Predict the 3D structure of the following.
Amino acid sequence: MASVSVSSGLNKTLRQHYLSLPQRGLCQVTYVWVDGSGEGLRNKTRTLDREPQGLDDIPEWNFDGSSTLQAKGSNSDMYLNPVCIFRDPFTLDPNKLVLCEVLEHTRLPAETNLRSDCNKVMEKVKEHIPWFGMEQEYTFLGTDGRPYGWPSNGFPAPQGPYYCSVGADCAYGRDIVECHYKACLYAGVKICGTNAEVMPSQWEFQVGPCEGIEMGDHLWMARFLLHRVSEDFGVVASLDPKLMTGNWNGAGCHTNVSTKDMRAEGGLQYIEQAIEKLSTRHAEHIKVYDPHNGQDNMRRLTGLHETSSILDFSAGLANRGASIRIPRQVGQERRGYFEDRRPSANCDPYVVTAAIARTCLLDEEEDEI
Ligand code: ADP
Ligand code: MN
Ligand code: MN
Ligand code: MN
């Protein structure tokens, strides 16, 4: 059996005593931000005198950027600018989790602040009322670095029974999945579903529909909650897009997209127009659909295991081997949304949604940000 971390063995009943102590009207606020790797999340907590009623009540804060791959030169103080508030499902009301963007000491967006550019694009396209829904796939790892529940020197039975499975021989780690789902609901993250995936110990949750910048904000917080809940159980959640080589599925972050026009009667023609535009910029999109200029997706988008080839653009009705899929129901109703299947599990949702909005909704003259 895969091993779990030492912290998960601490006495959780004892912990419950302290967590239920009254906190005298004070409020704990945990600031969460994306670090300089573009994948990692960091957090730190402070006490406020009273429960904040909105962003204006949460002060800017700072941190040491030299410890998070974020500082340039010797001036390592960076600012945390709160952008989105959630309830804290660990220490409960009135405590908060607040997602932050990172600013330089000049208060300009840091180089690693990819939200800033996304927000500008979303402002420009807002009359289209763009909705996004992202399907986050991930895999649990034991502390031995193997997928959780896999034999340490062997393999589970081949893929087939695991997708949407039930039963101790198929579904590994459901406790964590259920706790994460509840934590998201409590926090106010727009989680809309979950399922077991094709590879054993691989799972997916979906967030959406979210309008504009909200997509990135909610997916990043959902990821924070995933890592934090997994920590409680002593297991690691990996977003590596191709953890196991061989006949095992990789992990993606399918991105579903619609505009007001696509959702209205006869909207299929707008979906087709968007796909046409996407077809002319395949390479540019691949470059930003993982944090390593397409290198992560090189391992994943092989054309096998329900993926398209990284080299070609394709689109199809109900086709899970295409870059873009139009769901069957959308084809039947001739309105709805389309699915971009290319983003990798470790993609930055700000970058992915900005790229799609730019290509599909901005004219070239407008696309100077
Ligand atoms: P799949 O069949 O690809 O596995 P899922 O059920 O896992 O689909 O995920 C569907 C995703 O599509 C969800 O994230 C949901 O929020 C999103 N979605 C549904 N309707 C729309 C819409 N009109 N516009 C954008 N996203 C949508
Ligand atoms: Mn799905
Ligand atoms: Mn999936
Ligand atoms: Mn999908």
In short: The chain has a mean pLDDT of 95.
